[in-house]
Amino acid sequence: MATTMTDVNLRKPSVGFETLSLRGVTRAYGKNPPALRDFDLELGRGDFVALLGPSGCGKSTALACLAGLQPLTRGSIWRDGTRIDSQPTEKRGFGMVFQNYALFPHLSVQKNVEFGLTMRRVPRAERRERALAALRTVQLEEHSGKLPSQLSGGQQQRVAIARALAIEPEVVLMDEPLSNLDAALRIEMRTEIKRIYQERGLTVLYVTHDQEEALSLATRLVVLRKGRLEQTGTPQEVYTNPASAYVAGFMGYRNLFPAVCRESGPGREVKVTAFGTSVTGMLIAGTALGAGTDVTVAIRPEDLIIGTAADPDAIEAVAEVVEFHGRELSVQARTAAGGVLHLKTDQPVVAGSNLALTARPERVLVYQGGLDRSELEVEAGAR
Amino acid sequence: MTDMPALSGVPRRPLRHRLAERGVDWSLLLLAPAVAVIAALFLYPFIYGISISFQPQSGGGAFANYRNFFSDSYEAGSILKTLRLALPVALVSVGLAAPLAYQCRRDFRGRKMITLVVMLPITFGSILIAQGMPRVFSPYGWGNLLLKDIGLGPADLLYNYWGTFIAAVLTTLPLAFLMMMGFFGGIDRSLEHAAATLGAGRAARFRRIILPLAAPGILTAFMLALVESFAIFPSAILVGQPDNQTHVLTIPIYQAASQNSDYTQASAIAIVLTAIELLILGLVVFVRGRLFKGPATGGRG
After folding, report:
1. Which residue spans within chain A are E strands per DSSP?
2. Of A94, A96, A119, which is closest to B200 when you measure between CB atoms?
3. Taking CA atoms, which of A90, A165, A337, B157 is between 20 and 30 Å from A269?
4. What is the DSSP secondary-structure string of A332-343?
């Protein structure tokens, strides 16, 4: 990590690894079912991997294990050929950004950012330069003399990012870094994180329960369910082809409802009965289903189309709540059978309108088995 | 908000609203019982004590009691003896309690047991402790025999400075521990985690994060322990050497009041004790005021 005093620009991580891998990592707290079970993950240099899932799915545990903040119950962690899971946190050299920022309240912004460099015994003058450079990256240079409590939430989070970047870590671990910010700031900081990632060529492991955050930032998505890996792939892959109803629930398929298979085929096409009418969709996981099999149907709100009542296969529903979202309306409708559907439309709908809803078969995903919706819940501010 | 000029046509705001702006309302009446008790049982006797200390029983001018005390080198020497006892006791108590309080923030097997054992002396009171000490520290007590077995004894730990020292540490340690647990517990764990990811080892984390954030708590605990041991009395007599090594300030006070029935002299010495105590406390408060005092959290939690 040799550097000259004149070189004040933050450089890309010089030394490093090719892959960082978690193999069969299991972490159990006491006698509870493991928070993370046989978890495998490969993190290549330059990747931006998002761990996505609801509260308690094990995503933060995975991060804490990688950072060395929690011991593994089973499994191993490797940096290329070196096993690192018994190394203490301070030896691993991963930068980390915490959900609550974890800024040192008694140190100035400047000292906070310098902290990692002080620990590495970087000379004072160079330390100063590098901290200022890191603060410049997050556009907070002029606040360097303040205490963290004098900054706004968004500024504090940016200091936390600068502090993690100042040590020029091989990997930056981010634990729900934006979940304490309000909506507008969250989007701004999201772009900021992506910009820094691109500029610095970082490797990032990012934990979130927010699909939008995960999709917009990550080069690869990892969806977790009850401590196990549920699906992994590029954001496009996971978005368009959720492997399970659970993943679909995270990918914006707000309409998830139980149905019964009527007939299967040809190909992946399935006809199911839901809300008393016939719905045609595509079978995603599983093989040809027998008639009478329980399935879960997933449809995005934007894929539900208001058709004509003449269509015999349309789902009849009454608009209950209509929200104005600018270019379109977001409608919550109740079907004759009592189920709730969400749709987006640019047609004039008012509360009480009768709707006949259809969807194109290729936009209707059918999964074998049921789904417990409570699994998708995210507690506010929870890890 | 300054008071509005009473312009014609602009009605003056009701008194109740103006008081409420300064936080004065009827709920303050809840303070009344405590204020009354403090005034009657502390403030009045305290002021009375100051006043009679300047009205010596045996005459000789307003300052005769003070002159008597300071001119008698044996009596005046109790000031140094008190300091020599109270300062080390407070330091040792805080020094022992700090790592305990630090560790007891997180849960580990046996934590409740340790907490219970440390806190137990509070329930005993200093007399019970002083009564029990001879069984342990007399030349044939098991503590002393143990010291002998490991080649450190027998040690002279009773009826001298050390007897009182041990008793005082036993009574002040739980107080210091209790006080610091609150302060250490308020330090967000994620701060230590953050420091670790930035390369700080255990020692650096303690020195650079925990210690500065806990310093106000440590100083508060120190003050409490100091005040406790300043007023030490039973153990100075029961397990100390009250006429020599542990002739602390409370003893001449007791002697003046009970043996010589000279309350004015006793008051004068008590005022001296109070003054020294306040001086030290003032110093600690001054130091504490210069430390970081905000909440020890890392941001929004």
Report:
1. 19-27, 36-44, 48-52, 74-79, 82-83, 95-97, 172-175, 204-208, 220-225, 228-233, 255-264, 269-274, 277-283, 294-299, 305-306, 315-324, 329-335, 340-345, 354-358, 365-368
2. A119
3. A337
4. EEEETTS-EEEE
**B197/A96 CB distance under 8 A:** yes
Strand order in the sheet with A19-27: A36-44, A19-27, A74-79, A82-83
Residue found under tokens 């994620």:
B190
First and final CA of chain A: distance in angstroms? 34
The correct answer on CATH 1.10.3720.10 for the domain covering B31-289 is: yes
Residues of B in CB contact (< 8 Å) with A are 188, 190-191, 193-201, 204, 208-209, 212-213, 292, 294-301
**Lowest mean pLDDT across A12-16, A372-376, B89-93:** A12-16
How many angstroms away from the CA of A220 is the closest CA of chain B? 24
Whole-number Å distance between alpha carbons of A57 and A76: 20
Domains of chain A: residue spans and CATH: 19-240 (3.40.50.300), 253-376 (2.40.50.140)
**Domain residue spans of chain B:** 31-289
Label residues A46-73 b or e (16+ Cβ within 10 Å = b). Answer: ebbbbbbbbebbbbbbbbbbbbbbbebe
pTM of the model: 0.80
> Looking at the DSSP assignment, which residues form a beta bridge with residue A231?
A223
Spell out where A18-112 has E strands.
Answer: 19-27, 36-44, 48-52, 74-79, 82-83, 95-97
Q: Check residue A352 and give left, alpha or beta (phi > 0: left; psi -120 to 50: alpha).
A: left
Q: Which of B195, B204, B301 sits opposite A100 (nearest CB)?
A: B301
**Would you say A179 and A379 are in contact if contact means Cβ atoms under 8 Å apart?**
no
Neighbours of A287 (CB within 10 A): 8
Find, among B46, B60, B74, the residue nearest to B275 by Cα: B46
Identify the three-state secondary structure at position A224.
strand
Interface check for A30 against chain B (CB to CB < 8 A): the answer is: no
- Are residues B194 and A104, on separate chains, in Cβ contact within 8 Å? yes
- DSSP secondary structure string for all residues of A118-176: HHTT--HHHHHHHHHHHHHHTT-GGGTTS-GGGS-HHHHHHHHHHHHHHT--S-EEEES
CB A59 within 8 A of CB A51: yes
| CA–CA min distance B293, chain A (Å) | 8
Alpha carbon distance B78, A40 (integer Å): 71
How confident is the model over A191-247, as pLDDT tens digits?
Answer: 989 999 999 889 999 999 999 999 999 999 999 999 999 999 999 999 999 999 999
Type of residue numbered B129? I
Task: Please report where in the chains the tokens 């002998």 appear, as a residue.
Answer: B148
Q: What's the length of chain A? A: 383
Token pair of A114, please? Answer: 């310098």
Q: Is there a contact between A65 and A86 (Cβ–Cβ < 8 Å)?
A: no
Q: How confident is the model at residue A382 (pLDDT cuts 50, 70, 90)?
A: very low
* Chain B residue numbers touching A67 (CB-CB < 8 A): 193, 197
Cα-trace Rg, chain A: 24
The angle formed by the CA atoms of residues A270, A272 and A274, to the nearest 5 degrees, is 150
CA–CA gap between residue A226 and residue A62 (Å, rounded):
12
pLDDT-above-70 percentage for chain A: 94
Residue B98 is encoded by which pair of tokens?
A: 């700090």
Phi, psi of B268 (to 5 degrees): -60, -45
d(CA B104, CA B119): 13
